[in-house]
């Protein structure tokens, strides 16, 4: 029980309870058997007194729970001579924590695995070659340090690759095939190195690196509590009143005080306060298995009730890896020069389009410029300091403020442009066309089947780019050319609620925070979007949005079923006990079985149902 666990926390109490019972059984066969009721009953009353202290503290805070049933059951059993039944109730209380710990460990297996895989150490190269190095704590890594990553090791922090290598990034993206990377590319922390040792240059501190941010999100999720977990508090008072009423009526009608104890020993259902938390932890672990980090059980509750969904476009409904259509260089620049400038800066951007620019430059074999520092401007673009000058890549309005001779590109429906400038000189534009995610149509259809009534696209792109994408998915409501404040205003007005907002990138952080449930795409653990979202998708699949809603609904349903299983079976046993058909000792053991059934039922949240 939740209140019991607050008062009786340590496993030694389980051992002491078993020891007292063993000693009592041994004494029964000796001349000292008369001391058994005093030993067993006295120990049970001591535990009841300790529990009563915690109960009073909770009552003073305004929380009435099931503690009174546990205390009353123990006292009534001892008073009526059923000291062994009282000891079984104590065993249920002390052993309940061990049972819950097992269930929680089982339900948190996927989340725990993510924490266990987090890099702890780094190898810093201190000489001119790999022969001089030292092992350091990951928190001691400084930006600019040269690090050695051996075969099979995880990249300790986000870093710039100094030589070509292949990495397994499945823990970050869900992609099972190795990813080939070239010198100058940013390799995220958590990526597993291939068959050759490679050198990298640290680009971020440990706390700001991708995998460590994912670990922080997991830790936040593990520490959070769900409102539905506290549904038991809502049931506690009526259940307590009902239990005491049945026990009191049974005593009054039968005239036997033992009948009161027989009823109450089966009226202490741990499932009310254990099974629901286990179900929610199971749902969070099930979500983690599909690449979703859910920040608490209360988020699962909201997901279970979602009625509206709003999508960003780029990197959400679309792949975020657009295909280059053409490059429009300004006078004095070539196609390759514009692309190389853009890719050199975009290496340091968290925007979903940045990877497409870098990949295109990589395919053409272009040499990227060395960058001494870089800064991303939320919603605008990225500025990088190079030996050739300051390279800016981003939106037209941002570049037009500083770049001379700026020319906006003429776009066809569905196209988008990335603008590039070198210092105060406009260099050109890269015209791209993004593609709809292959799972976008099915995801939208699945959400409709799950009961989502309204869907909309809310994007900063122009209508000519956004509307064709939305039409392909069957979404008719489109809000285009939105700034972050516009997105917050639009999403706040969408009904019915709750509303799930799906997006990515820095410019989506405000609207993700403002939505009832914010869903961040793309495993960008260090972005503001992931920090402000309620659900973070480590794997870059849009179908995870529907998976999240489904997991939420299954989890809440199973949690409520577990609560009601505990209540209904306990009530049935109380009625049987009220007629004198259930001895106190047998009833106490049956209550242990009820606990186990309810918790095993709650563990069903770990798997699809």
Structure description:
The chain is of the alpha+beta class and 609 residues long. Among the domains are: 120-153 and 159-203, Distorted Sandwich (Calcium-transporting ATPase, cytoplasmic transduction domain A), CATH 2.70.150; 323-433, Calcium-transporting ATPase, cytoplasmic domain N (3-Layer(aba) Sandwich). 49% of the residues lie in helices and 17% in strands. The chain contains 23 helices and 22 strands. The strands form four sheets. Strands 10-22-21-20-11-18-19 form a seven-stranded mixed β-sheet, sandwiched between helices. Helix 18 (463-473) links the parallel strand 18 and strand 19. Helix 2 runs antiparallel to helix 3. It is elongated and about 105 Å long.
User: Structural class from helices and strands?
Assistant: alpha+beta
- What is the helix content? 40-55%
What's the overall geometry? elongated
Widest sheet: strand order? 10-22-21-20-11-18-19
CATH class of the domain at 323-433: Alpha Beta
Instruction: List low-confidence stretches.
Output: 1-9
Q: How can the largest sheet be summarized?
A: 7 strands, mixed
Task: Fill in the CATH topology of the domain at 323-433.
Answer: Calcium-transporting ATPase, cytoplasmic domain N
The first-to-last residue Cα distance is: 27 Å
Mean pLDDT score, rounded? Answer: 84
The tally of helices reads 23
Radius of gyration: 31 Å
CATH superfamily of the domain at 323-433: Calcium-transporting ATPase, cytoplasmic domain N
Strands, total number = 22
Strand proportion, as a percent range, falls in 15-25%
Secondary-structure arrangement, i.e. CATH architecture of the domain at 323-433: 3-Layer(aba) Sandwich
């Amino acid at each position: 029980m939740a209140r019991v666990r607050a008062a009786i926390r340590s496993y030694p109490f389980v051992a002491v309870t078993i020891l007292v019972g063993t000693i009592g059984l041994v004494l029964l066969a000796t001349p000292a058997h008369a001391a058994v009721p005093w030993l067993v009953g006295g120990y049970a009353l001591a535990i009841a007194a300790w529990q009563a202290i915690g109960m009073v503290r909770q009552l003073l805070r305004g929380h009435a729970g099931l503690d009174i049933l546990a205390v009353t059951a123990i006292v009534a059993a001892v008073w009526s001579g059923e000291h062994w039944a009282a000891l079984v109730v104590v065993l249920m209380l002390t052993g309940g924590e061990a049972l819950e710990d097992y269930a929680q460990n089982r339900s948190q297996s996927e989340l725990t695995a993510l924490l266990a895989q987090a890099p702890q150490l780094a190898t810093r190269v201190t000489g001119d070659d790999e022969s001089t190095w030292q092992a350091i704590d990951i928190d001691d890594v400084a930006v600019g340090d040269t690090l050695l990553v051996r075969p099979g090791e995880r990249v300790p922090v986000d870093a710039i690759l100094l030589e070509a290598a292949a990495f397994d990034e499945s823990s970050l993206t869900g992609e099972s095939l190795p990813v080939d990377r070239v010198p100058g590319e940013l390799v995220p922390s958590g990526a597993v190195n291939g068959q050759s040792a490679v050198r990298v240059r640290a680009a971020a501190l440990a706390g700001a690196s991708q995998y460590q941010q994912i670990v922080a999100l997991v830790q936040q999720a593990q520490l959070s509590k769900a409102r539905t977990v506290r549904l038991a508090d809502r049931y506690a008072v009526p259940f307590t009143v009902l239990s005491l009423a049945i026990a009191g009526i049974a005593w009054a009608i039968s005239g036997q005080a033992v009948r009161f104890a027989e009823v109450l020993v089966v009226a202490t259902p741990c499932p009310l306060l254990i099974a629901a938390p286990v179900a929610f932890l199971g749902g969070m672990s099930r979500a983690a298995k599909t690449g979703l980090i859910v920040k608490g059980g209360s988020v699962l509750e909201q997901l279970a009730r979602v009625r509206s969904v709003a999508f960003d476009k780029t990197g959400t409904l679309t792949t975020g890896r657009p295909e280059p259509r053409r490059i429009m260089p300004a006078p004095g620049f070539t196609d390759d020069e514009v692309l190389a400038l853009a890719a050199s800066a975009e290496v340091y951007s968290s925007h979903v389009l940045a990877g497409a620019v870098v990949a295109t430059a990589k395919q053409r074999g272009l040499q990227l410029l060395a960058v001494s520092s870089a800064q991303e401007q939320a919603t605008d673009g990225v500025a990088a300091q190079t030996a050739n000058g300051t390279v800016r890549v981003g939106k037209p309005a941002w570049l037009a403020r500083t770049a001379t001779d700026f020319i906006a590109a003429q776009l066809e429906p569905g196209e988008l442009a990335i603008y590039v400038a070198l210092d105060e000189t406009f260099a050109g534009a890269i015209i791209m066309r993004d593609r709809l995610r292959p799972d976008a149509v099915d995801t939208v259809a699945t959400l409709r089947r799950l009961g989502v009534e309204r869907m909309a696209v809310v994007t900063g792109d122009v209508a000519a780019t956004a509307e064709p994408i939305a039409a392909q998915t069957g979404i008719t409501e489109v809000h285009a050319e939105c700034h972050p404040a516009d997105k917050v205003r639009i999403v706040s007005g969408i009904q019915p609620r709750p509303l799930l907002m799906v997006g990515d990138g820095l410019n989506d952080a405000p609207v993700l925070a403002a939505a009832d449930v914010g869903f961040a795409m793309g495993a960008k653990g260090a972005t503001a979007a992931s920090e402000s979202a309620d659900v973070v998708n480590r794997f870059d699949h849009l179908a995870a949005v529907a998976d999240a809603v489904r997991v939420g609904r299954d989890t809440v349903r199973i949690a409520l079923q577990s609560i009601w299983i505990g209540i209904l079976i306990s009530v049935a046993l109380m009625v049987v006990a009220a007629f004198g058909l259930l001895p106190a000792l047998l009833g106490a053991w049956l209550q242990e079985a009820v606990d186990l059934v309810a918790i095993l039922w709650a563990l069903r949240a770990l798997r699809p149902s």
